[in-house]
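Subject: for your reference before the review

Hello V.,

The reviewers asked for a structural picture of the protein, and I figured it would be easier to keep everything in one thread rather than splitting it across files. Below is the amino acid sequence we used in the manuscript, unchanged from the supplementary table.
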Amino acid sequence: HNRLNIKVMSLPWIALGVTALVLFVVFLIQIGVFTWPTVSVEDVKPTQVIYKYHTGGMKKVGPAFKALSALIGKNCDHDRNARMVGVYYDDPEKTAEDKTRWAVGVVEDDVDASAKESLAKAGYKTFLLQGCTTVKTEWKFYPQLGPLSILLMVYRCYPALDKYIKTKELHRGNAMEFYHGYKKSSIGIGFIPVDVRFALKDINTWAVPEALESK
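And here is what came back from the structure prediction:
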C-alpha cells in the first residue's frame, strides 16, 4: 500500500516535469535555437535614416542601440514601432577590434520632431541608404534575452549568408541588420523581426561619409 501511495503521489510531479520540459522545448524553438534561416535575394528601396557613426569592437553595438532607443523613446513604456538599422563596414574576423567601422540609426519617417531634435543634439546625422540588390535572412530578436538572442542571430544568419554568397560566387558588400517593429509570438513572448542582409554591390554600398573618410 505504501509503495502504491508513493507512486500515486509521484504522478502529479511527473506530469508537471513533463509539462515543464515541453514548455522549455517550445521556448527554445521560439527563440531560434533549432532554427537554420533560409537565404533569399531581394531588392531594397532607398531609405532615409538618422544615424551615428562608430568605431570599435562589436561589443559596443548593443550599448549604441540602447542609447539610440533611449533618445527615441523605443522601450517598454513608449513607442516600439520605430525601425532601427545597423550597418557594418568591416569583417570583425579580419579587422582589428579598434578599427571596425559601423553605424546605427533609425528610419527618419518613424520618429517625431522632438525625437529628431534629441538625435541632432546627440550628434546624429541624416543619410540616404541607397537601394540595391541584397542577400537576406530573417530572424526574431528577443530583447528580454539580451546578448543570448544576438549571439543566436550572429551564429545562425551570417554563416548562412556567407555560405550562399560563396556557393553562388557573388560579390559581397557591406552588412546590414534592419530591426522592424515590436511584435508578440504565438506563446506571448515579445520579439523584433530582423532582416540580416549583405549588399550585392560595390564595397561602399550604405557607407556613410565618416566610413569613407576613415577607410
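For the response letter, the relevant points are probably these. The chain has a mean pLDDT of 82. Helices lie at 2-31, 61-72, 113-121, 147-168, 209-213.

Happy to draft the paragraph if you're swamped.

O.
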